[in-house]
Specification:
The protein has helices at residues 11-41, 47-74, 83-89, 102-130, 133-154. The protein has a single domain (11-90, 97-154), classed as Ferritin (Up-down Bundle), CATH 1.20.1260. The chain is mainly alpha-helical. The protein starts with 10 loop residues before the first helix and ends in an 8-residue tail after the last helix.
């Protein structure tokens, strides 16, 4: 294992966190690419509002991905952010390349964002139990932010009921 900058953790805790971080990294890359796919191709009555929102969500997702990757390296791991790793280790289904209408994109993104938030929420519990509270805290923030962005996106669905 490369040099770690968190030697106060046991090897088992660091290894568990690195594994969870790399799965979150791969899945986060999948999600960020799905967000950009929707951003480029969305059409509908709320086009401009959603288009601009997706720019912001994409940027926030990029910050989360960067933080996840950096934490992996801090713990002595290698951040595996390749397209191949995203395809192999990511947990999201492929994004529908033929999606156009805003409601389709909203549903597809919301579903993936909720899945990603659940993945990091499960990871935060496991790494916390292993003794890595800092990584658990990182996952808490990511889960909270992605859940909020899922709400922002989901609120644009044209069949939302009062």
């Amino acid at each position: 294992m490369p040099e770690a900058f968190a030697d106060y953790l046991s090897d088992n805790a660091r290894e568990a966190s690195i594994n969870h971080l790399n799965v979150a990294l791969a899945t986060g890359i999948q999600l960020q690419l799905a967000i950009k796919q929707a951003h480029w191709n969305i059409k509908g009555p709320s086009f401009i509002g959603i288009h601009e929102l997706l720019d912001d969500v994409y940027d926030r997702m990029g910050e989360h991905i960067d933080t996840i990757a950096e934490r992996c390296v801090i713990l002595g791991g290698t951040a595996d952010g390749t397209v191949e790793a995203a395809q192999k280790d990511g947990k999201l289904a492929p994004y529908p390349a033929d999606a156009v209408h805003q409601d389709t994109h909203i549903e597809e993104l919301k579903k993936r964002m909720v899945q990603f938030a659940a993945l990091v929420h499960d990871s935060l519990k496991e790494v916390g139990e292993s003794g890595d509270e800092e990584t658990a805290d990182l996952f808490t923030g990511v889960s909270r932010d992605v859940s909020k962005d899922a709400w922002f996106i989901g609120a644009h669905h044209t069949s939302a009921k009062s």
